[in-house]
Structures are given as C-alpha cells and as structure tokens.
Amino acid sequence: MVRQFAWATLPKSPKGPQDTRTLGLFNGTPAVVVLLRRKPNANVIETVDQVHALIPQLQLELPPDIHMQIATDSTNSISCLVTRNRN
After folding, report:
1. What pLDDT does 12 receive?
2. Phi-psi group of 23: left, alpha or beta (phi > 0 → left; psi -120 to 50 → alpha; rest → beta)
3. Residue 11 domain-assigned?
4. Is the dihedral of CA 76, 56, 53, 44 positive or negative?
5. Is 5 left (phi over 0), alpha (psi -120 to 50) or beta?
6. Whole-angstrom Cα distance, residue 66 to residue 4?
7. Is 70 exceeded by the pLDDT of residue 15?
8. What three-state secondary structure class fits 25?
9. Which secondary-structure segment (H or E) carries 56?
10. Is residue 8 part of a domain?
11. Residues 81, 87: Cα–Cα separation, whole Å
12. Phi, psi (degrees; rounded to nearest 5) at 49
C-alpha cells in the first residue's frame, strides 16, 4: 500500500525494482529503506512531527512480524538550534 500525503510527493517509478543489486539493511537485517526529503520551503520540523505521528497508524496496517522504525532523524540538531536561538 502506498499513500501520498499533503506534505509528501511520491515520484513515479518504473515497474519493478530499479536496481536488483541494491540491498537495504537495518542493524544487519534485510529491510525496506524509505528516505524522506522535504519539499522546498517546507517546515522540516512540522514534517518530521507528522511522520512520527503517522508511524503507529501505519504499523497497524502491517503484518505483526513487520516493524517500522526510524533509523535516523536529522531534525534533532535543527530543533536544538531553534530552541537555543529562541532563548
């Protein structure tokens, strides 16, 4: 199932894998890796907050043996800078 949200644009891709020699791993386990990039002029903090809020809902739609996890989130440093500049 693929969903498109107001804050995300899904590019069209050809049928089938683009590169059958690519392997996604997470902590040494085969994984489906999804990279999210913000739209130009988008508020990256709000976008990431929306993604974090959506994960539990999406997890409910997956089989019980498949787990969604955020591997890395670069907004932590951005949030710290914003907070520091407000003070």
Report:
1. 63
2. beta
3. no
4. positive
5. beta
6. 21
7. no
8. strand
9. helix 44-60
10. no
11. 10
12. -60, -40
Residue 5 forms part of a structural domain: no
Q: Which residues contact 32 (CB under 8 A, 6 or more apart)?
A: 24
Q: Which of 14, 7, 73, 66 is nearest to 41 (CA)?
A: 7
Q: What is the pTM of this model?
A: 0.59
- Nearest 5°: CA angle at 86, between 84 and 87? 70
Query: How many domains does the chain divide into?
Result: 1
Closest CA to 12 of 2, 26, 20: 2
- For residue 64, which amino acid is it? P
Residue span of the structural domain in which 80 resides: 25-86
Residues 67/59, Cβ–Cβ less than 8 Å? yes
d(CA 37, CA 6): 13
Confidence of residue 1 (pLDDT cuts 50, 70, 90): very low
Q: Residue 52's CB: how many other CB atoms inside 10 A?
A: 12
